[in-house]
Amino acid sequence: MSLSQVVGRLIGVREHVVDPGGGGAPRVSRPVAALVVGGGIAGMSAAVVLAERGVAVTVLEAAPHLGGRLGAWPEELPDGVQRNEHGFHAFFRQYWNWRSILRRVDPALGFLKPIPGYPILSEQWPTEEFGKLPPAPPANLLALLLRSPSLRLADLRSMDRDAALPLLTYDPARTYEEFDERTADELLTSLRLPDRARAMLFEVFSHSFFNHEAEMSAAEMIAQFHFYLLGNPEGLAFDCPDRDYATAIWEPLTRHVEKHGGRVLTGAPAARLDRTPEGWRVTGADGDTWEAPHVVLAVDPTALAALVAASPGLVAAAPELVARMPAFGTPGPPYAVARYWMDGDVRPDRAVFSGVSRQPTLDSVTLYHRLEDEPRRWAERTGGSVVELHAYACEPDVPADELAARMLRELTALWPEVADLRVRELRARVEAQAPAFTPGSHAGRPGVETDAAGLYLAGDGIRTEFPSALMERSAATGIIAANHILRAEGAAAEPVRSIRPRGLLAGRVGPKRS
To answer: Is the model's pTM score more than 0.85?
Structure first.
């Protein structure tokens, strides 16, 4: 444990128990079934916990592969099959609930390898490094202020300190009451930061949540700043799998669920949900039906809204859920992923992962041939490279190939040697599956429990009463949904953990009210 983590623990920056679990029999005492609609992180987290406790769980995944936005599938290339993936994900070290699920199939998490550094690239300013700060606050914040050329002492004197206090006074209730109606853009403007500091320290951060700061709740940005930096004892360092997601995660988790008596079905889209005297019936697109007293809906917001709209019986069974769906089901802006197989390589000193500031389209770059085994072998065999480019929140109605070409041009402006690389293969796509965190949306955001008995929600757009985000929110809500089912059946629940629940100065200094 580092000195900053020791100091952090003394002021409460440590792992906190949200739910201690336990409280019942090790397994359910009678035969009971559950259906999980969606085979991504949220759905499979729920399925793992339920299957281990003896629930006969069936996972219904619409796609031909598991994973959702963490999915992977085989891709035919001229020189052989390669696994392609939905996009790069950082496995931050405070993702304790997600890591708990992953430890079921790899107790040492040996497939996760540390990513050295976290540079932010800019065409306007020199690269800044954020991955080598002390892990825990307040040391990480002090080091950031001392090391970052984007924010000098004179800049701190000119910024609005009252406007900055909400970043240090996060509270799960009060922050949303006071800041959810404002945009992240308005909050950042109120800080009076230098343009360089705003671009390099904050805008890159807000884009990582697949939302534009002009369309994102200020409260949500404060919450995520707390989750990743100011309330987190693990720091900004993160790990990534050294194998594709299917090999490292989804195939082992499927075997784990099946070993405990569960079933995982792919290519099984749910088309309708109906109340029955015994619980729930899910009807598939091909007419197949599955019934169980408990159902977890673990799909993206648009798919959830579509399923609810196609289930007229929910108007009577779950009127509150139905009422929330029109607003909740509108996704965030589209995001683009382009994976390039190239002749030749970029400079050897280029980082495995880099964030990007202030390019019109490009938000991040990942060198997969320096990250995962299969791309590494391909690069060794061909002398090439595998480069993945992301646009986290791009303009709508632009074809995937056009966005890919834009991102490649923007990367060339940052890394000139890219201009000399010939593209051998490109796989590009645009999706709109990430949740929107628009101003004023928090009050109507559904939580895990619905107003219908036996019906639960999970996913990274579902509200939690503790700080969480992205993959960790997906896993946590999946576990919480499973816990509701287990407690209803008299079985022991799974522990749920999170970071420090409130900001460093929460309760000491109140935010300035506008």
So the answer is: yes
